[in-house]
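Q: Got a minute? One more chain.
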Amino acid sequence: MLVIASLEWFAKDERLAKLFQSIVKKSSVPILGMTSISGFRQLEQKPDLAGCLQFILTEKIPRMDKRNKSVLIIGATSFFGNAVYDLFSREYKSVRGTGFSKAGLRGFDKLDVTSEEEVKNYFSKCPGFDIVIYIAGEADADAAEKGRDRARALNVEAVSIISRHAKDCKFVYISSEYVFDGSSGPYGSHSPARPINYYGLTKLEGEKAALKDFSGALVVRLGALYGYNGPSDKKTSVSKLIAGLENPEPLEADNVQVKHPILLEDAAGTILKLLDYEMSGIYQANGPEGLNKQEMAERIAAVRAEATGRNFSYPIVGIAQTGTAGKPLNTHMVNVDTPRPFNEGIRFLFQKQGLTKGNTL
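A: Always. Here it is, folded:
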């Protein structure tokens, strides 16, 4: 790995930036750049360069007593919400979570974010949160296409409802790579957002509502999430591929759409870091590697063999998959953080599940 200090200097000189970009694209060595927050924002204006790099922010993080605050995680029962709740419960003074249909499973508060009356009553009974993180919403692009009213109510309208009753909080809105059309990445946070499906449209409008309705709001766009909280997790592309490797038959996987998968713990850690830096505006985090599902399956099979001693002896076949919603081809985003590579994340996932040699299911 090559580590470069004061990376922002490359953004100040156009000729130097072009030279460095040509070197980066030819290099087989991962390049890690050290830069200030303002330097990162400068580099992000050159997404073709910044998209090839990993970043370490060099500014001093404010004192940790910044975490002596109360946090509300709306949607703590969701796949990502579980991971955020677990991390923030260890790092912040006071953390509460809400859910809806699954609220009772972990003792979370039940809250229907589409009901103005419920939201008003909730914040009347539980006022004064310093930070509110909004992870509730429709996260399935195909489901959003079929149920547009519900998707809009959860991803857009709920933000404005909450803004009327959660006063003076730091609001964090979790958004998606699907705000981009996938035709011309890598994308910086200021790149034109042109969603090609209804889910992406609602996330983009939800971003705008958050930035408009809350002073100093933080929007975090995430790539495809994978990981493990427990056996009741929703199915993801990665978990479906892992399950497919258990079947004694060839595994078919999409070989067209490219994703940049990011581990739950890394995505949650990015939000924690951005709050420590007291950031506002739009930031992005996705995995460092672009992979289609066939390539993911091949990587997972290799890590699985190494971790458990179990080989997958059938072909992994690439196919073009379709769904109700149009899917962007490649939504590679410029990363504000340094999430771990996919193989390392899958290895961590297997360890968390106890799927290692001598302890396999």
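A: The chain has 13 helices and 14 strands.
Q: Perfect, thanks.
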